[in-house]
């Protein structure tokens, strides 16, 4: 059985920010303009360092000066992580033949649900997407058409390559990446609320960082991927690899480490957002109505924080309530997120992250198991 798998086979049926923010209300309409974070920067730094203690770090975390997306100059937590998760294996991704089982391949999003991928999934792509141009296998041999190995990584990292690999299953593995090539995540020790509307989520900065050092990435560019009749499948942990970001998540299903919340009967802490607010696990459906447009709310003892959306929605949170920091390819670079904000989205390849497109058309399969 696949470890951590919560998706279903498509064809089976056609405490750690406690006291950081002082709020007494749980209303999603709470006025956040009066937010004050009472925790001192050195204390928050120690707290974050402990949370990421088991991450695949390449450098010791530090406090740095930074400029956030709204232009605020402040102090940030800086951590550089390697291209692979610290606590679990990665893959598999693409099936090799149309006879492969779900245990031999990964997962994918269809109509905002997460599904197991097996050989039958590849064989039925034209039915799933109501598009006869899908033909990702050799009809005579049953072999799936792959862009793998170093070629797969090259394709995954090239934003212009997808049309050249029509009907390819693209996979990049961490073993083809330099283990010492990481990314540096810089986010504020104290969140600084945005003025006006909440901040958009840029494709390069991403959403946040799990405590194993894996990036919570921006929505996968499904319009680019599916429009090119290409797949960049995820593994059972809803992650995959590109040479720029390394291994990164597009959903959370329990592979990520979690920490007990500082409030009773609350879902666990799973990540820190790039604006400095904490991210907790998904709420039960009956509780989700308390969340605002960004996927956050206020809880006594925890203050304002986010909850991730269900894996399969291609989205962790809806927006940033506070000014976001930077994701840097060079750990010695200075974070100026206002520059990234002005530049706008940066393109990615089939397995990268970019602005989320519309979900694929076609028949909606039965939903996944509720486990």
Briefly say what this structure is.
The protein is of the alpha+beta class.
| Cα separation of the termini | 14 Å
Secondary structural class: alpha+beta
Spatial order of the strands forming the largest sheet: 11-12-10-9-13-14-16-15
Low-confidence spans: 1-31, 33-38, 344-371
Folded structure, characterized:
With about 375 residues, the protein is of the alpha+beta class. It has one domain. Helix content is about 10%, strand content about 20%. The chain has six helices and 17 strands. The strands form four sheets. An eight-stranded mixed beta sheet has the order 11-12-10-9-13-14-16-15. A hairpin with a 4-residue loop joins β9 (about 210) and β10. The radius of gyration is 20 Å and the shape is globular.
Task: From the structure above, extract its key features.
four-stranded antiparallel sheet, alpha+beta, disordered N terminus, disordered C terminus, 17 strands, 371 residues, 6 helices, single chain
């Amino acid at each position: 059985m696949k470890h951590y798998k919560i998706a279903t086979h498509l064809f089976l049926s056609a405490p750690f920010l406690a006291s950081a923010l002082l709020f007494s209300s749980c209303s999603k309409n709470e006025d956040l303009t009066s937010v004050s974070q009472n925790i001192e920067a050195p204390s928050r730094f120690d707290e974050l360092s402990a949370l990421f203690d088991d991450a695949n770090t390449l450098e010791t975390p530090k406090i740095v000066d930074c400029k956030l997306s709204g232009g605020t100059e402040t102090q940030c937590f800086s951590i550089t992580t390697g291209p692979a998760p610290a606590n679990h294996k990665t893959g598999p991704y693409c099936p090799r033949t149309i006879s492969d089982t779900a245990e031999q391949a990964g997962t994918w999003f269809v109509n905002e649900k997460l599904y197991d991928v097996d050989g039958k999934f590849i064989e039925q792509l034209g039915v799933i997407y109501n598009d006869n141009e899908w033909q990702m296998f050799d009809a005579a041999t049953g072999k799936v058409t792959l862009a793998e190995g170093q070629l797969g990584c090259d394709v995954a990292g090239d934003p212009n390559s997808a049309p050249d690999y029509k009907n390819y299953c693209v996979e990049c593995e961490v073993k083809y990446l330099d283990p010492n090539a990481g990314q540096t995540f810089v986010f504020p020790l104290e969140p600084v609320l945005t003025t006006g509307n909440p901040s958009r989520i840029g494709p390069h900065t991403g959403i946040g960082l799990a405590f194993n050092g894996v990036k919570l990435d921006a929505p996968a560019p499904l319009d680019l991927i599916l429009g090119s009749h290409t797949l960049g499948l995820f593994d059972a942990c809803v992650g995959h690899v590109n040479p720029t970001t390394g291994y990164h998540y597009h959903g959370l299903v329990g592979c990520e480490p979690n920490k007990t919340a500082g409030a009773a009967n609350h879902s666990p802490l799973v990540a820190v957002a790039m604006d400095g607010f904490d991210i907790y696990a998904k709420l039960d459906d009956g509780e989700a109505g308390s969340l605002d447009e960004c996927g956050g709310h206020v809880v006594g003892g925890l203050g304002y924080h986010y909850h991730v959306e269900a894996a399969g929605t291609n989205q962790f949170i809806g927006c940033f309530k506070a000014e976001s920091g930077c994701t840097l390819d060079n750990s010695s670079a200075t974070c100026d997120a206002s520059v990234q904000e002005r530049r706008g989205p940066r393109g990615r390849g089939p397995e990268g992250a970019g602005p989320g497109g519309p979900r694929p058309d076609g028949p909606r399969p039965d939903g996944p198991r509720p486990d």
